[in-house]
Amino acid sequence: MLYLIGLGLGDAKDITVKGLEVVRRCSRVYLEAYTSILTVGKEALEEFYGRKLILADREEVEQEADGILKDADISDIAFLVVGDPFGATTHSDLVLRATKLGIPYRVIHNASIMNAVACCGLQLYKFGETVSIVFWTDTWRPESFFDKVKKNRQHGMHTLCLLDLKVKEQSLENLIKGRKIYEPPRYMSVNQAARQLLEIVQNQRIKGEELAITEETLCVGLARVGAEDQKIAAGTLQQMCTVDLGGPLHSLIITGDSMHPLEMEMLSLFSIPENISESQSTDRL
């Protein structure tokens, strides 16, 4: 049996009892290590689970999945995913590969950012299509996701923006030369995402297009959702450029153009005071 097990969003203890029981009896346990991270490292997970974990990077999961599935027809193999197992399409591919090989599978679900995002007070049924915001480079600055933000806003829906992370990535030079040298991990912050969004807004303004959002659009920044030091800040898109939410992982919500009074009241708990210094504002979060 192949088990896909969600680990939740915080630390080692967020795994379900059912998931932990399975982990402790599997012959091999893989930890998917590139679509998200927990607030603790591999060693802390191993200590709590009482099992050695095999790190599975993007290349192994996407190109060498047969190695993960090896002997899964005669023994139990666990594949651990931060959040919920189906938070990334890669894991659907693993299920399809297992099915084609005649390997049965079972999914043990857990909390993910897709539902835990409601901690800020915005109602889940009012969220539209989720988008991803990636790191821009000098030659690649995609804006196509913004059409989805615009569509959500037109329907009064909120947009959850999942922010980019780069783990075990190679520079173009090392990739071309085939050198297994990797760049340090990078995690996009709410500040970086907001600055890229403001640039898109300005580009659309120059083109004379109708603006879906502006510098004053209400947004919500979230950091380390599910952890004890979780932070939430509600303010304008412009304010999101400077608010300090600390370490990764960050997410950003662009609110819909109409909100329920209860949503507004909840967001007021996390509002960034106007005309206050950055250091003071972070103390309120």
Automatic annotation (TrEMBL):
Where in the numbering of this chain does the Tetrapyrrole methylase domain appear? Answer: 1-240
Pfam families xref list: TP_methylase
Transmembrane segments annotated in the record for this chain: none
Checking InterPro entries in the record gives:
4pyrrol_Mease (IPR000878), 4pyrrol_Methylase_sf (IPR035996), 4pyrrole_Mease_sub1 (IPR014777), 4pyrrole_Mease_sub2 (IPR014776), Dphthn_synthase (IPR004551)
Superkingdom, natural source? Eukaryota
Q: Per its UniProt record, what CDD domains does this chain match?
A: DHP5_DphB (cd11647)
EC code(s) of this entry: 2.1.1.314
From the UniProt record, give the pathway where this protein acts: Protein modification; peptidyl-diphthamide biosynthesis
Q: Reaction(s) catalyzed by this protein?
A: 2-[(3S)-amino-3-carboxypropyl]-L-histidyl-[translation elongation factor 2] + 4 S-adenosyl-L-methionine = diphthine methyl ester-[translation elongation factor 2] + 4 S-adenosyl-L-homocysteine + 3 H(+)
The signal sequence is none
| Class of this enzyme | transferase
Keywords attached to this Swiss-Prot or TrEMBL record, sorted alphabetically, are:
Methyltransferase, S-adenosyl-L-methionine, Transferase
Q: Which NCBIfam families match?
A: dph5
Q: What protein family is recorded?
A: Belongs to the diphthine synthase family.
Q: What does this protein do?
A: S-adenosyl-L-methionine-dependent methyltransferase that catalyzes four methylations of the modified target histidine residue in translation elongation factor 2 (EF-2), to form an intermediate called diphthine methyl ester. The four successive methylation reactions represent the second step of diphthamide biosynthesis.
What name does the UniProt record give this protein? diphthine methyl ester synthase
Q: Which organism is it from?
A: Galeopterus variegatus (Malayan flying lemur)
